[in-house]
Amino acid sequence: MFKAYKYYWQNAFKYRATSTRADFWWPVLVNFIIFVILYFLLVIAGFASVTSIMNGYNHGVGFLIFLLFVIAVFAIAIIIPGIAICVRRVRDTGLTGWTVLVFWLLSLIFTSNNSAVMETIFSVIEIIFLVILCLPSGYINKQGWWSANYDNDITVPSLRNDD
């Protein structure tokens, strides 16, 4: 788990390689756990701050603001590595990395208004993308589906040196 998370940060700007399912899902889990811990601390600090303000004191507000700052910095910091590992994961399944952009644009289009039909289409698109992220390495190429590398048959390098 820690090896995959270290790999996640070390290869934050590498888009032209591949990442296995474990390389993708361990950092997702670790980031989720970090956010749960930070939000749990935020709830405790918020409750303590509100309680102290109701009792006429001004204690704990600084810690609350600090936690909000830490959450914002962490959320911004994981954007680029998250996009990079998502692109590498999609490339590992056999699709092109531009698939991530296509799904992101479709998500923007279908969430731009408050229609129930559009929200349903958005949910279906997100489920399809989740299934793609869960596919094994090279699954789409092995099944004979369309692949961006079909004509020139390029071998996509892995960032791991497990030889």
Walk me through the topology.
Blueprint: H1 2-10, H2 21-54, H3 61-77, H4 79-93, H5 98-110, H6 116-134, H7 139-142
Helix pairs in contact: 1-2, 2-3, 2-4, 5-6
> Which percent band covers the strand fraction?
under 5%
Measured distance between first and last alpha carbons: 20 Å
Following the backbone from N to C, one meets helices and strands in this order, namely HHHHHHH
What is the gyration radius calculated from CA atoms?
A: 20 Å
Anisotropy-based shape: globular
Number of helices: 7
Quick take:
By secondary structure, the protein is mostly helical. The chain has 7 helices and no strands.
Please provide a written account of the structure:
The protein is mostly helical and 163 residues long. Helix content is 68%, strand content 0%. The chain has 7 helices and no strands. The chain is globular and about 65 Å long. The two termini are 20 Å apart.
Q: What brief labels describe this structure?
A:
163 residues; globular
